[in-house]
């Protein structure tokens, strides 16, 4: 880890300890911020940091910003530049997580989003695997329901909505599971606590639709593309019943944090034969190679931070 870490805060790069907000701030009191989680992968051989699908994360952030009536002074390109500069300044040489946050900054009491100034910040933290197990996850269907589009829209990555995630994840862990699967109020599968979900049935990949109260994952779209291109498997997007989780041949979570992680047990029932399935493994391996810059065809998704001479991607 570098000696001194910087954050981008109120228009400047400042030492992380100086990036502080008041306890009165709207986002703290009402959860009125939107954020992204972006991974940077350190490639030791090339001494390069690759930020994964940077533009796509900031494009989605712009949608969240719009939904929550936040004003953002920066364009997607500017946000990408800030992220690259910040990781560079922090001299990160290990896998990193970049966390931009756009938020309502009023210090008055009252929930309204109007007459309420917006602010933007970004920081980075070193970040390894989200799940500490290598053998596949044991999960539970949560007793909590996913927030709905007409309550707190899940397609926006709203800070306050993560109270829903926190309740679901925490109960699962306290009950002895690795994570949870959350249903919508209509009883259909939505997604994992903070990640999307795929099942495999008879060789077909299936995931939920954007109308199932999911965050439309960038990893979900990555998985669909690599499954189609590399494994010749199309994905069907449709509603998934709870009991389809019990009869699936394979299952995996996917997300920026979760990456691609197989699930081997749901509600104390084995998924398939209780082992990591071949399609899940193939997708997981491809995703790892692609994020680390090992497959040229997918360099389109990588933004190099250091862009030193001799690097394959973005060499200057
Ligand atoms: N759903 C939720 C609720 C999440 O927090 C995340 C993680 N950002 C995802 C899905 C997966 O999205 P992505 O692949 O873009 O990280």
Please report the distance between the alpha carbons of the first and last residues: 26 Å
* Overall domain count: 2
CATH class of the largest domain: Alpha Beta
Query: Which small molecules are bound?
Result: 4'-deoxy-4'-aminopyridoxal-5'-phosphate
Write the CATH homologous superfamily of the largest domain: D-amino Acid Aminotransferase, subunit A, domain 2
How many β-strand runs? 17
What's the shape? globular
Question: What is the helix fraction of residues, given as a range?
Answer: 25-40%
Which stretches of 5+ consecutive residues score pLDDT under 50?
none
- The chain-level structural class is alpha+beta
Strand content: 25-35%
Describe this structure in words.
Strands 8, 9, 10, 11, 12, 13, 14, 15 and 16 form a nine-stranded mixed beta sheet that branches. Strands 1, 2, 3, 4, 5, 6, 7 and 17 form an eight-stranded antiparallel beta sheet that branches. The longest helix is centred in the N-terminal third of the chain and has 14 residues, at 54-67. The chain has helices at residues 26-30, 54-67, 76-89, 162-174, 218-231, 242-247, 278-291; strands at residues 6-9, 12-15, 33-35, 38-43, 48-52, 96-104, 118-126, 137-145, 179-183, 189-192, 196-201, 204-207, 235-237, 250-255, 259-266, 269-270, 302-304. Helix 2 packs across helix 3 and helix 5 (218-231) packs across helix 7 (278-291). The model has no long low-confidence stretch (mean pLDDT 96). It starts with 5 loop residues before the first strand and ends in a 12-residue tail after the last strand. It has 316 residues and is an alpha+beta fold. It binds 4'-deoxy-4'-aminopyridoxal-5'-phosphate. 4'-deoxy-4'-aminopyridoxal-5'-phosphate (PMP) binds at residues 37, 165, 191, 194-196, 214-215, 217-220, 255-257.
């Amino acid at each position: 880890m570098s000696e001194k870490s910087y954050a981008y805060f109120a228009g400047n790069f400042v030492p992380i300890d100086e990036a502080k907000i008041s306890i009165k701030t709207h986002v703290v009191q009402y959860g009125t911020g939107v954020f992204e989680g972006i991974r940077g992968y350190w490639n030791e051989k090339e001494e390069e940091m690759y930020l994964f699908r940077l533009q796509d994360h900031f494009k989605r952030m712009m949608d969240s910003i719009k939904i929550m009536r936040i004003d953002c002074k920066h364009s997607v390109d500017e946000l990408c530049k800030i992220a690259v500069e910040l990781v560079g300044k922090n001299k990160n040489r290990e896998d990193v997580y970049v966390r931009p946050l756009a938020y309502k900054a009023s210090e008055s009491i009252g929930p309204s989003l109007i007459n309420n100034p917006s602010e933007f910040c970004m920081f980075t933290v070193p970040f390894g695997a989200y799940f500490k197990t290598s053998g596949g996850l044991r999960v539970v269907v949560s007793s909590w329901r996913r927030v709905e589009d007409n309550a707190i829209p899940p397609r926006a990555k709203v800070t306050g909505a993560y109270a829903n995630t926190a309740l679901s994840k925490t109960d699962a862990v306290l009950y002895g599971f690795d994570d949870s699967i959350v249903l919508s109020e209509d009883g259909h599968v939505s997604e994992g606590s903070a990640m999307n979900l795929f099942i495999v049935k008879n060789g077909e990949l299936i995931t939920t639709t954007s109308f199932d109260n999911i965050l439309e994952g960038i990893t979900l779209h990555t998985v669909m593309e690599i499954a189609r291109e590399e494994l010749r498997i199309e994905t069907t997007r449709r509603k998934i019943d709870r009991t389809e989780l019990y009869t699936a041949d394979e299952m995996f979570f996917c997300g920026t944090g979760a990456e691609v992680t197989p699930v081997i047990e749901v509600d104390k029932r084995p998924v398939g034969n209780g082992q990591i399935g071949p399609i899940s493994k193939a997708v997981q391996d491809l995703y790892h190679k692609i994020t680390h810059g090992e497959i040229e065809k997918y360099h389109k998704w990588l933004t190099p931070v250091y862009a030193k001479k001799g690097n394959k991607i973005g060499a200057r």
